[in-house]
Amino acid sequence: MATKLDPEDVTLHSNRSVCWINLGEGDKALEAAEMCRIIRPNWTKACYRQGAAQIFLKNYEKACDAFQDGLKLDPTNVEIENALWEAFNSLKISRAKAVS
């Protein structure tokens, strides 16, 4: 309802993305995160939210891309760097399983 009152409020979309992940709704989480990126493309938190939603959906390559975008914006962001490593390791594991 709040996003209808102020559809440009990026914080609402960001928080909504987290809530959808916590409810197990990965597609909705990604949709909210992508809205963050549209509204504020140079916001590191939007990149983080998008990456987190992609990890939840097991789209590890896309998660890596989102986290790398975030690190380009803020190279000192440890949270995004750690998330990138998590996504990268998950990608390696999923590829190894696909080969075997």
Automatic annotation (TrEMBL):
Keywords tagged on the record: Repeat, TPR repeat
Question: Can you say where the TPR repeats lie in this chain?
Answer: 44-77
Asked if the Swiss-Prot or TrEMBL record annotates the protein with the keyword Repeat, the reply is yes
- What is the designated name of this protein? Uncharacterized protein
Q: Looking at the keywords, is Repeat present?
A: yes
Entry-linked SUPFAM superfamilies: TPR-like
> Per its UniProt record, what PANTHER family does this chain match?
ANKYRIN REPEAT FAMILY PROTEIN (PTHR46224), OS02G0492900 PROTEIN (PTHR46224:SF53)
Which residues are in coiled coils? Answer: none
The source organism is Triticum turgidum subsp. durum (Durum wheat)
Pfam family example for this protein?
Answer: TPR_2
Domain of life of the source: Eukaryota
